[in-house]
Design a protein that fits this description.
Blueprint (H helix, E strand, L loop, with lengths): L7 E5 L4 H12 L3 E6 L2 H11 L4 E5 L5 H15 L2 E6 L14 H29 L3 E6 L12 H21 L4 E6 L28 H12 L4 H13 L4 E2 L6 H13 L10 H23 L2
The structure holds 1,4-dihydronicotinamide adenine dinucleotide.
Length: 299
C-alpha cells in the first residue's frame, strides 16, 4: 500500500500528541483527515492550528461502540470512505496491578483496548466491502514488549493490542488491507495528564492523584520524541507495509536482551508420549503461519 494521497484517514486521539502529528503528516501527503477525540477543546485548537479545509473534528469517546459508529457515519458523509484507520487514542495510569481497582481496569481497557476493537469493528467491515484496500495502524507502545510492575494495566492493554494487530494483519491481507503497529518510546505529549479525562462513572475506584508525580511525568515527557518525527516514520513504514513501527531505535538492544531471556527459559526434556504426533501437527501449523506472514508482507 503505497498510495496515501486522496484517501480519507480517521485518527483517534488526533487532537494532541502522536495523533496530531499523524493528522498533520497525513494532510501533507494529500489525505483528508478526521480528528476524533474526547477533548473537544483540543479538537478546536487542533483545527485552528492545522488550518486546512481537508480536516474535520469529531467528538468521540473511543470506548463507546455506539458513538464510534455515529462518528464513522458523520465522517464518511463529509470526507468520503475511510480507508486509513489510526487507532491511536490512549491513556496511562502509573500503578501496579495489585494496587488497582475494577474502575482502573475498566477505564484503561475501555480506551486502550476496546477503543482499538471498536475502531476495527466499526471500520474494517466497511473497508472490506468497498474493496479499496487501505491500512489500519494501531498505536501500541514499547510497553507492548517491555514490562515492569507499574504501569501494569497499561502493559496489559498494549500487549493485547499487539496480539490483536498481528492477527488482524494476517486476516486482512486477503482483502488488500495492511496492518501496522506503532510502538513509540517516550513522546513529547500530554499523556501524563490522562487523569483529567477519566470518566466520572469510573472515578469511585480511583486513587487520589499524586500531583507531584504527575508534574515529574510532565517534565519527563518534555524529553520525548516530537510527534512530527514519529508521524514521518509511521507513514514511511505504512508505505513500506511494515508491521512493527519502532519509531525509537534506542530500544533495539533492550528488546534483544528481553528476547534472549525469553528463549533462555526453554529447557531440553526427555521425550514425552505424543511428541512425535505433536511435531507433525506443529510442522503443518508452522508452515501455515509462515505462509500467512509471507502473504501479509507481500501486500
Ligand atoms: P496525548 O494525551 O498527548 O494524546 C492522546 C489523545 O487521546 C488526547 O488528545 C486525548 O484526549 C485522547 N483520548 C484519550 N482518551 C480518549 C477516548 N476515550 N476517546 C477519544 N480520545 C481519547 O498522548 P500521546 O502520547 O499522544 O498518546 C497517543 C498514543 O501513544 C496512546 O495510545 C499512548 O498509549 C501511546 N504512547 C505514548 C507514549 C508517550 O510517551 N506519550 C509512549 C508510547 C505509546
Amino acid at each position: 500500500m503505497t498510495q496515501l494521497a486522496g484517501r480519507t484517514a480517521f485518527v483517534t486521539g488526533g487532537a494532541n500528541g502522536v495523533g496530531l502529528g499523524l493528522a498533520r503528516a497525513l494532510l501533507a501527503e494529500g489525505c483528508k483527515v478526521a480528528i476524533a477525540d474526547v477533548r473537544e477543546d483540543s479538537i478546536e485548537a487542533a483545527l485552528k492550528l492545522l488550518e486546512n479545509q481537508h480536516v474535520m473534528g469529531v467528538p468521540l469517546d473511543v470506548a463507546s461502540r455506539e458513538s464510534f459508529a455515529q462518528a464513522a457515519d458523520r465522517v464518511e458523509a463529509e470526507l468520503g470512505p475511510v480507508s486509513l484507520l489510526f487507532n491511536n487514542a490512549g491513556v496511562n495510569l502509573f500503578q501496579t496491578i495489585d494496587d488497582s481497582s475494577y474502575d482502573d481496569w475498566d477505564w484503561l481497557l475501555g480506551v486502550n483496548l476496546h477503543g482499538v476493537i471498536n475502531g476495527v469493528t466499526t471500520f474494517v467491515p466497511r473497508m472490506k466491502e468497498r474493496g479499496l484496500g487501505g491500512h489500519v495502524c494501531n498505536t501500541a507502545s514499547m510497553a507492548a514488549f517491555l514490562c515492569n510492575g507499574a504501569p501494569g494495566i497499561y502493559n496489559t492493554t498494549k500487549f493485547a493490542v499487539r496480539g490483536l494487530s498481528e492477527s488482524l494483519r494476517y486476516s486482512l491481507a486477503a482483502h488488500g488491507i495492511g496492518v501496522s503497529m506503532l510502538c513509540p518510546g517516550l513522546v513529547k505529549s500530554q499523556i501524563y495528564a490522562s487523569d483529567a479525562i477519566r470518566p466520572e462513572a469510573l472515578k469511585a475506584g480511583a486513587k487520589e492523584v499524586n500531583t507531584e508525580f504527575v508534574s515529574n511525568l510532565e517534565k519527563l515527557h518534555q524529553a520525548g520524541m516530537e510527534p512530527e518525527v514519529i508521524a514521518a516514520r509511521t507513514l514511511e513504514a505504512i508505505q513500506e507495509n511494515r508491521f512493527y513501527i519502532f519509531s525509537h531505535p534506542e530500544f533495539q538492544d533492550e528488546l534483544a536482551e528481553v528476547f534472549d531471556e525469553v528463549l533462555a527459559d526453554f529447557r531440553e526434556y526427555p521425550e514425552d508420549p505424543g511428541l512425535a504426533d505433536r511435531l507433525q501437527i506443529e510442522a503443518g501449523r508452522r508452515a501455515s503461519y509462515k505462509k500467512a506472514r509471507e502473504a501479509a508482507n507481500a501486500l
